[in-house]
């Protein structure tokens, strides 16, 4: 065998290995089936990968790309015939194994054509997806039609509506840009919907801490209110509910970091330290409460949250965002930095997203990054204090005492962050 032939061996070996990898997963899934009942097993997948590799070598040596298409068609027809025979005998028409075999054929060709990284990555992704069948089906069973409709709404407002809006400033100082405002609405709706779906998928059986964490991505205020109502139902619930409230409120700070990073990536470097300090304090407080919980029983009741993709809340947030954007520009022009700080503190009583997005957009133009981050952090700290007061008012003094220490630690970390910016 000449040097050129030896050079082809690694590609062929990888093609066979990738087929074996996918074939092992398929064989394991069908390990209880009787002999001959499987459409394709380990050997079939290994040979399919080898066939793809050999086809790739022929395509490369003959410079005839059409051979790959013809070979792919032949493999597809053969496997389709095998699938039909299986259906007639076992009344099982699942096409997953057929598609996986076709993918293996193409991955084998990629490996032989000098694309080993892409081929290996494709095989790993294919194997993972195949192995996740029970998990993925379980997620689908937990989701309802309203979640699907919400996802479609998100696509409509982002893919269809957003490109139609004018990308220019209107109103005083040209501060209201319909395209930018609606893009930020899409961003917040997308983040909230992701958290909502994650919480629905995980389900209440994971406990209050997990659902509090995921629910905090949607609305930490709603989670705080609901958990504060749950806590008085039993003496042992106070500490667990307090930990869930703290972790839900802590998610606000990483969420702010995501918003800043998307709107104005350069500002994230200035915001990373103070937001990181508060997040660390919040996580430490939640862990502390977790270790102090009474008994091993963790209640599984999930906070009830509204779907963030409802049109009404999205329009309300758009109006709030427009108002905060206009007020922020007016405060900066008329009152300077002090006006922005006052507006941020007032905004933080009800919402943090609007002021965070507005200030990040202004920092992208001509606002000092230091002022923007301090104002955002001030709004977040005020919001945290409000949630602590809400927990004490709704859940009683017992719950208020438990959240007081972690929230105080978060406030101290935030104040330290203000001086470190």
Automatic annotation (TrEMBL):
Keyword terms: Membrane, Transmembrane, Transmembrane helix
Keyword Signal: no
DUF4010 domain location: 186-395
Membrane-spanning residues: 6-28, 40-59, 65-83, 95-113, 119-136, 148-166, 181-199, 237-255, 267-291, 375-396, 403-420
Annotated signal sequence range: none
Pfam families attached to this UniProt entry: DUF4010, MgtC
Domain MgtC/SapB/SrpB/YhiD N-terminal: 12-138
PANTHER family per UniProt: DUF4010 DOMAIN-CONTAINING PROTEIN, MEMBRANE PROTEIN-RELATED
Protein name in UniProt: Uncharacterized membrane protein, DUF4010 family
Organism: Thiohalospira halophila DSM 15071
Source taxonomy: Bacteria, Pseudomonadati, Pseudomonadota, Gammaproteobacteria, Thiohalospirales
């Amino acid at each position: 065998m000449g040097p050129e032939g030896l050079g082809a061996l690694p590609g062929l070996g990888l093609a066979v290995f990738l087929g074996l990898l996918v074939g092992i997963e398929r064989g394991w899934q069908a390990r209880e089936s009787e002999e001959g009942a499987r459409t394709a097993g380990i050997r079939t997948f290994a040979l399919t990968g080898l066939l793809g590799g050999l086809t790739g070598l022929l395509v490369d040596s003959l410079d005839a790309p059409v051979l790959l298409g013809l070979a792919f068609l032949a493999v597809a027809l053969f496997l389709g015939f095998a699938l039909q025979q299986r259906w007639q005998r076992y009344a099982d028409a699942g096409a997953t194994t057929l598609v996986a075999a076709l993918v293996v054929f193409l991955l084998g060709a990629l490996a032989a054509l000098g694309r080993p990284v892409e081929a290996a990555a494709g095989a790993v992704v294919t194997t993972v997806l195949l192995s996740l069948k029970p998990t993925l089906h379980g997620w689908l069973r937990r989701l309802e039609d309203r979640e699907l409709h919400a996802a479609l709404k998100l696509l409509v407002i982002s893919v269809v509506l957003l490109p139609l809006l004018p990308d220019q400033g209107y109103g005083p100082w040209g501060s209201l840009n319909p395209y930018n405002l609606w893009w930020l609405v899409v961003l917040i709706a997308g983040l909230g919907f992701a958290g909502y779906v994650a919480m629905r998928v995980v389900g209440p059986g994971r406990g209050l801490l997990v659902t509090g964490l995921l629910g905090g991505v949607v609305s930490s205020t709603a989670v705080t209110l609901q958990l504060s109502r749950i806590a008085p139902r039993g003496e042992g619930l106070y500490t667990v509910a307090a930990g869930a409230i703290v972790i839900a409120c802590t998610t606000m700070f990483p969420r702010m970091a995501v918003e800043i990073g998307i709107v104005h990536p350069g500002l994230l470097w200035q915001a990373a330290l103070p937001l990181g300090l508060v997040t660390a304090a919040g996580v430490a407080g939640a862990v502390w409460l977790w270790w102090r919980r009474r008994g091993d029983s963790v209640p599984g009741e999930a906070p009830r949250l509204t779907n963030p993709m409802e049109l009404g809340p999205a329009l309300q947030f758009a109006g709030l965002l427009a108002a905060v954007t206009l007020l922020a520009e007016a405060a900066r022009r008329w009152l300077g930095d002090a006006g922005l700080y006052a507006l941020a503190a007032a905004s933080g009583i009800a919402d943090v997203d609007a002021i965070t997005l507005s200030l990040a957009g202004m920092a992208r133009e001509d606002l000092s990054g230091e002022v923007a981050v301090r104002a955002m952090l001030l709004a977040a700290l005020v919001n945290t204090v409000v949630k602590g007061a809400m927990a004490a008012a709704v859940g009683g003094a017992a719950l208020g005492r438990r959240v007081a220490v972690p929230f105080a630690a978060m406030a101290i970390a935030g104040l330290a962050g203000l001086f470190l910016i």
